[in-house]
Design goal:
The complex is a heterodimer of chains A (119) and B (111). In chain A, the strands form two sheets. In chain A, strands 2, 4, 5, 6, 9, 10 and 11 form a seven-stranded mixed β-sheet that branches. Chain A has a four-stranded antiparallel β-sheet with strand order 1-3-8-7, with no helix packed on it. Chain A has no helices and eleven strands. The N and C termini of chain A lie far apart (40 Å). In chain A, β9 and β10 form a beta hairpin. In chain B, a hairpin with a 6-residue loop joins β4 and β5. Classes of the chains: A mainly beta (119), B mainly beta (111). Chains A and B meet through β5 and β10 of A and β4, β8 and β9 of B.
Chain lengths: 119, 111
């Protein structure tokens, strides 16, 4: 059974940093690209970042470019999102999601971890 | 940046058919995927590619696309289909992929 479990969320002050993790199991993690998607309270889904299976290709949404860094450790079956210079508008539930290579899209999602940026 | 536009809300009588649309330039080049999200839960993929359903998704869900518009159709809507629905697709700048874009979301109410 495919499982994605996010962790690392919490309350952080504006300008602060946080590192999210996503532990993957039930599939060959090193064969799949992965994504982070977020959802602000009461709002829609927003794609945040993509990383290919070998980490050779990385994309970011314009809203986080230069502040967030996506990475992965295939030996540990883990995906990460380093978030720096956090702003109030980064407050959201953050999901990791597995990429569908052939057609695009996200076939498995974690349960999400809440990040709150507030003083 | 690219945008995918959806109607904010639609309603459907129990057992009837509802179509949700998603419009955007990226859909001329890339497939749309569709997600169902119920309150307090993570999104669930319901349609991907040309018209593919993941295992466990009922066959009352189907997808189609023409030009810059993708559609999700629920034929014979059930009470449990009441949820928010989002489309998304790959996104590019010229010939270069640059990630993904999500639609604005549609709230489906089953009457």
């Amino acid at each position: 059974e495919v499982q994605l479990v996010e962790s690392g969320g919490g309350l952080v002050q504006p300008g602060g940093s946080l590192r999210l993790s996503c532990a993957a199991s039930g599939f060959t993690f090193s064969s799949y690209s992965m994504n982070w998607v977020r959802q602000a309270p009461g709002k829609g889904l927003e794609w945040v970042s993509y990383i290919s299976s070998s980490s050779s290709t990385i994309y970011y949404a314009d809203s986080v470019k230069g502040r967030f860094t996506i990475s992965r450790d295939n030996a540990k079956n883990s995906l990460y999102l380093q978030m720096n210079s956090l702003r109030a508008e980064d407050t959201a539930v953050y999901y990791c999601a597995r990429d569908i290579r052939s057609t695009g899209g996200f076939d498995y999602w974690g349960q999400g971890t809440l990040v709150t940026v507030s003083s | 940046s690219s945008e995918l536009t959806q109607d904010p809300a639609v309603s459907v009588a129990l057992g009837q058919t509802v179509r949700i649309t998603c419009q955007g330039d990226s859909l001329r080049s890339y497939y749309a995927s569709w997600y169902q999200q119920k309150p307090g839960q993570a999104p669930v993929l319901v349609i991907y590619g040309k018209n593919n359903r993941p295992s466990g998704i009922p066959d009352r869900f189907s997808g189609s696309s023409s030009g810059n518009t993708a559609s999700l159709t629920i034929t014979g809507a059930q009470a449990e289909d009441e949820a928010d629905y989002y489309c998304n697709s790959r996104d590019s700048s010229g010939n270069h992929l640059k990630g993904y874009v999500f639609g604005t979301g549609t709230k489906v109410t089953v009457l």
